[in-house]
Each structure stands twice: as structure tokens, then as C-alpha cells.
Write a structure and sequence with these properties.
Multidrug-efflux Transporter Regulator, Chain: A, Domain 2; three-stranded antiparallel beta sheet; rod-shaped
């Protein structure tokens, strides 16, 4: 070999940290062919064999199969091409593993039955189009018959989950739970009731009233009352109840009377469903939004304060 340094299998094994058996295996596979033979017929390898075995070891650690490795070391395909293809394949495997992990985590937390496990697994494996059909079916049922008013379209968009292409485990877990909520007929009825309330509670200009009540008056006035420890039936709650009822009456263009206050109580009771809070929390996890504050304490306080002042 014109004076080039040659190594026996034993020398090569010591230099690379591999076993003699492993070096012989790669040599037999044609990945690291011998450069020469000794007078006794033993295989001898050139200095390039050290570098080739180092590359082979790295690629094997990364999970590449032997036929692909052979093409790389023989330069039949470029290393960047192989790395890109393998990275894509690993991404698919990662998504599958995340789905499995999310399902198993949910099963462990809930103590699920085999039937529930099967359902969760199917929900986690839904394609993007299948997920979209499930979402559209739920929101279509909730807003059925309410027309194309822009307010309802905006509300529907705000309730739409968008699972990322490469979701985190907690996002997958949240999706599975949300998909189960979609199929909860009791929850559908609650959401349909809220949508009908939106359609009924129209201001004279055609805008919807209930969201504004919850977003402005209820939050701004009741949260401080809760923080201050004001009891719903206490005299200190009277100005708050009066302000809330007056605000609601102003939005709807109706007088502040017993009928209006009963109507407000009914609206708020419909909203005070723990599944609604859970839906919004799961939605925030899936969409990467900040976690919403629960409305339940605010709604419960307001309902009790209103009822304390309604005639028996």
C-alpha cells in the first residue's frame, strides 16, 4: 500500500472503541472494506477506516439502517439528504409517541376502563380533516338556526381549537378531553342554551348583550366584591346588584324590573356550568393561549345576590 499505515481488526477496534466482532460485522457488510491482506491472510485496513467507522457508529446511534449507512459512506447519497429524510421520519415517530404518551397519561390519571382507553386512542389518532369535522359538527349544533350574524361567527371562532402540527403532550391530552366534551349531549345542550340566550338578548342596535355584561359589569364589579369578602345577601352587595341590573337593562333597552332580573339570573345560571370553564381551559392549552380565569365564582356570587333580592 505504498507505505500507508495499515491496521489489523484488533488495532482498528482499539482505535475506535468498537469490539472486534463489530468491526468484522461492518467489514463483512462491505461498509468498511479491508485495504489489503497480511501474508497470513488477515484483513488489514487503511487510516480512512477509522474515520468511516466513526461515522458509522454515529449514524447507527442516530438510528439509521445499515443499507442507508453504506450508501452514505460510499457517497452514493449525501449526508445532508439522509439527515433530512431521517429527521422527517423521526418527527413522525415523535408525533406518534406523543399521542401514545398523552393517551396513557390520561388513562393513568383517570383510571380509565378498556372501553375509554379505546375511545381516547381513536380520538388522539384523528387526522386534521377528521378533527375539523368533529369541531364543525359540535359548533354547528351549538349555533344551529341562529343565522349568519357576525357576532355568532366571532363567538364560534373564539371557541375553535387549533391543534398544532407538532403538539406537546399536554395539548394532545387536552384535545382528547375536549373531543370527549364535544360528544357530551348535556354539554351540547348547555352551549346551545347559551347561544340561544345570545340570540335573544339583543340590544336595540342588534348587538348581543350578554357577553358585554359578563365581560364588563360582572367582572369589574363582582371580582372586587369577592376579594373584599362581601356576602351576596349583605347590604354592601346592594349597589353592585343595582348597577349590574341597570347595566343589563340599558343594554337590552328594557326597564330594570323583576322580570328583567329573573331573566338575568336565568342567563347567568346557564353560563355557570363547570364544563364550560373546563372547555375554555382546554381550549387555551390547545391553542397556546393564557389560561382563563374561572367565571364560576363570579357567576355564583351574582346569581345568589340577585336571588336574595327577588320576591319569593
Amino acid at each position: 500500500m505504498n507505505g500507508d499505515t495499515l491496521y489489523s481488526i484488533g488495532d482498528l477496534a482499539r482505535r475506535t472503541g468498537l469490539t472486534v466482532k463489530t468491526v468484522r460485522f461492518y467489514s463483512d457488510a462491505g461498509i468498511v472494506p479491508p485495504a489489503d491482506r497480511s501474508p497470513a491472510g488477515y484483513r488489514l485496513y487503511g487510516t480512512d477506516a477509522v474515520a468511516r467507522l466513526g461515522l458509522v457508529r454515529t449514524l447507527r446511534d442516530l438510528g439509521l439502517d445499515l443499507p442507508t449507512i453504506r450508501k452514505v459512506v460510499d457517497r452514493e447519497v449525501s449526508l445532508p439528504e439522509v439527515a433530512s429524510a431521517h429527521a422527517d421520519a423521526l418527527e413522525v415517530q415523535i408525533r406518534v409517541l406523543r399521542l401514545r404518551r398523552a393517551v396513557l397519561t390520561a388513562v393513568a390519571k383517570r383510571g380509565s376502563t378498556p372501553e375509554e382507553l379505546d375511545l381516547m386512542h381513536k380520538l388522539a389518532k384523528l387526522s386534521e380533516n377528521e378533527r375539523r369535522r368533529l369541531i364543525d359538527d359540535f359548533l354547528g349544533a351549538v349555533f344551529d338556526g341562529l343565522g349568519d350574524h357576525p357576532a355568532f361567527a366571532a363567538v364560534a371562532r373564539s371557541l375553535t381549537p387549533e391543534l398544532p402540527e407538532s403538539p406537546e403532550a399536554e395539548q394532545v391530552e387536552a384535545w382528547v378531553e375536549l373531543a370527549e366534551l364535544f360528544q357530551d349531549q348535556g354539554f351540547r345542550s348547555t352551549m346551545q342554551g347559551m347561544a340561544r340566550d345570545l340570540a335573544t338578548d339583543r340590544a336595540p342596535d342588534g348587538s348581543t348583550g350578554l357577553p358585554r355584561i359578563l365581560a364588563t359589569a360582572v367582572r369589574s364589579q363582582v371580582i372586587p366584591a369577592l376579594a373584599a369578602g362581601v356576602e351576596p345577601a349583605a347590604p354592601d352587595a346592594e349597589p353592585i346588584v343595582t348597577a349590574l341590573a341597570a347595566h343589563y337593562a340599558h343594554i337590552l333597552g328594557h326597564p330594570d324590573d323583576t322580570t328583567l332580573r329573573r331573566r338575568l339570573v336565568s342567563r347567568l345560571e346557564t353560563m355557570d356550568d363547570p364544563r364550560r370553564d373546563r372547555y375554555l381551559l382546554l381550549l387555551a392549552v390547545i391553542n397556546g393561549w393564557p389560561a382563563p380565569e374561572s367565571l364560576s365564582p363570579v357567576l355564583d356570587w351574582t346569581v345568589r345576590a340577585l336571588r336574595a333580592r327577588l320576591p319569593r
